[in-house]
Structure formats: structure tokens, C-alpha cells
Amino acid sequence: xxxxxxIWMNGELVDWSDATVHIGTHGLHYGSGVFEGIRAxxxxxxxxxxxxxxxxxxLHRSAQLLYIDxxxxxxxxxAATWDLIGANELPSCYLRPIAFxxxxxxxxxxxxxxxxxxxxxxxWGAYLGEEGQRNGIRAKISSWQRVGPNVIPHVAxxxxxxxxxxxxxxxxxxxxxDEAILLTAEGNVADGxxxxxxxxxxxxxxxxxxxxxxxxxxxxxxxxxxAEDLGHRVVEKPLIRTDLYLADEVFMVGTAAxxxxxxxxxDQVIGPPGPVTQKIQQAYLDTVHGHSExxxxxxEFAPAPSAAATADGAAGDPAA
Length: 320
What we know:
The chain has 320 residues and is an alpha+beta fold.
């Protein structure tokens, strides 16, 4: 991770090295936190954050499911995001809002503890590698099952849930694969350690439905919309591992991974990125980089300064 200048923390911008928490922080001990992964892209119109409001709304929903009362509104967090982007002077960056139960009592119950909120930003390239994004990655079905909907609320993007993902991707990496694919307790395909999964068979695109203990992915939603607008049929249904083996194309999507083809699953060769994957990948990348107007409603740009703020700035400028 490349250190940047500032981190927004509990209402103010602080130096990167000063954004610390107490060792007794509840979230450190019990995983009582929620977070988001968001990307900002440099475009011809300036920096755009892809679906910023949708991500912040999901952050609030995740907190609600964990009974965490966020002390900042969506509007306040949106403003904080733009303040941070400006302070760090990064036209393209990855953004990590996080809220967690802070230092107070250290029992399992989080009642009465404060809630800390922070936003980080730093440069982050292709999550699964540029070569993988171009030519596809190798994935392994994990021996670790995806947690069930009555084990923990999988709809929440919660910090503690990602121990499940960490174990799965670690197992895959140690075996020489790039990423893991998790199955549900029933044996259905769920998702990757941090990505949603799609497959193509006979021209139809399939993806696991939400009953497969998966996150309600914002990139997943974007790709479904893009694919349908491009004339593809998208079916959300239970999938089993052999569906992936016999697929014409398989790809993963996520904020960090963007659209990444999968060329092998469990040493079953699927092949190089196919035409459907390439078409969707190009449409997605053109959209986030501001090269296409078709789905430009998802791009959020910094708000223009108010007339009052502009006037105040001019009044305080001796050269004005």
C-alpha cells in the first residue's frame, strides 16, 4: 500500500501516520465493523467516483444490519470523500470508508462503545493484476464454505465476514492459483473472495442469485445492467461447480477487480477471454473512465463550489 498525505477520521483530515486506534478497540477484537471499496477515476471532466452514493448507502445498510449507529450521514460522508480526494491530490484512487465499534468496554457486547468512522485513499492498480485482467486468471474452488445467511448477515459488507474470504484466497494462493471461488453449504457457487461471478453458456449469461449468501454487489448490479443493455440475456439462478467447468466463458467483477476473466477453474481450462467477457469488460472500463455516455449516470463528480463560498474566497484574496 502506498501511503498518501491524509486520512479522514471522525470528522477531520489527519496525517496518514496519525490515523491510529487504541489496542482495546472493539472492532479489532471482534470484527465489529463495516466498510466499502470504491474507485475514483480520472476522466476528461475531472475525477469521478463510480457510484459513490450507492456505496455510501450500502455502508449505512450494512451498519444497520450489525446494529451499528453511524454518526455521519450519507451527505456528510460524501463531502468527506471529496475533501480527502482533494487533500491527497489523487485524480485516480481506491477509497476505503470504514466504520467500527471503538474503544470502550471490551466485552463481546458492543453496547455503549463509540463508533469510529474513517476514509482512506491510495493508488491501487488492477486488483488481480494487469496480465490477469487482459488474459484471465486461474481460480480454485475453496474447501472453505461461504457463510450462510443465518450464520451472519451476508448482505452486510462487514469486516468480520472477510475472515471467510481471507481463508479461501489464502488457500488458493498457496496452491498456486490467483483467486478462490466459494460454494455454499448446499454446494452451489457463491462468489470469489471479493468478487461476484458470472458465466456464459450458449450466449446466455448466468450469475448466482442472492440466495447464495452473496453480497449485493454494486459492480454486479452495474454489469447486469450493462449486459442487458447490450442485448444479452442475464439469468440469476443457482449454479454448481461443474457449470463453471463447462462454461464457454467465466469472469469475476468487483470494485477492485473491475471485470476480470477466468481462464481456468480447478485446472479445467475454459480458455482465453471470450467475446462476451471482452465486450462487457470494455463497456465497463469505458464507462468508469468517462469514455462512454451510455451509463454516465453512475459517475459522480465533485460538487461545484457554492456562490457564497466563491465570494468568500474572492473577498479574502488580496489579489482579487
